[in-house]
Design brief:
Radius of gyration: 18 Å
Strand order of the largest sheet: 2-5-1-6-7-8
Strand content: 25-35%
Number of strands: 8
Number of helices: 4
Shape: globular
CATH topology: Rossmann fold
Length: 172
């Protein structure tokens, strides 16, 4: 299973923007990247009136929409709040980046902007692996500037992609 790393931070801190840049950089390096976005209030993937919407509305528990090169699934799943349960959908990637799931135990990279808050959300938390910030403050963990995407990708690649692949080879 691929390593999961959660990108956390306050609302409007730049998590999605950071993820976009990080995904592009990791893809440029040849890595396969999956993303899980935690939606606190539910979501609708399909539009009213479309066939898949009608199938789901009729009571289907799982609807898969497939076309050449693309697949989407809408599934009723009371256990979808479990990262462990979601791992099965990502066996074909090198790394899963998560936006949200703040309370789940996994390595976290916090996006912290000093204009939005006084202290980092996860300061002192053992899950906090690094932070991306415009602050001069030090937390005793790797720190990256808001635009240091290549350096952050180097960190993630070494620790969570290449390091994990090396460990898996050693255990075979």
């Amino acid at each position: 299973m691929p390593q999961m790393v959660s990108i956390v931070g306050n609302s409007a801190s730049g998590k999605t923007t950071l993820l976009e840049k990080l995904i592009r950089e990791l893809k440029k390096r040849g890595h396969r990247v999956g993303v899980i976005k935690h939606a606190h209030h539910g979501f609708d993937l399909d539009r009213e009136g479309k066939d898949s919407w009608r199938h789901k509305r009729a009571g289907a528990d799982t609807v898969v929409i497939a076309s050449p090169g693309r697949l989407a699934m809408i599934k009723d799943d009371e256990k979808s709040e479990s990262l462990h349960r979601l791992e099965a959908y990502f066996e074909d990637v090198d790394l899963v980046l998560i936006e949200g799931f703040k309370k789940k135990p996994c390595p976290k990279i916090e996006v912290f902007r000093r204009s939005l808050q006084e202290t980092p959300l996860f300061s002192g938390n053992s899950d906090l692996a690094a932070w991306v910030t415009d602050s001069e403050r030090e937390l005793g963990i790797p720190k990256f500037g808001l635009e240091e995407i290549e350096a952050l990708a180097d960190f993630i690649e070494a620790r969570y992609i290449l390091g994990k692949q090396e460990t898996e080879r050693e255990t075979r």
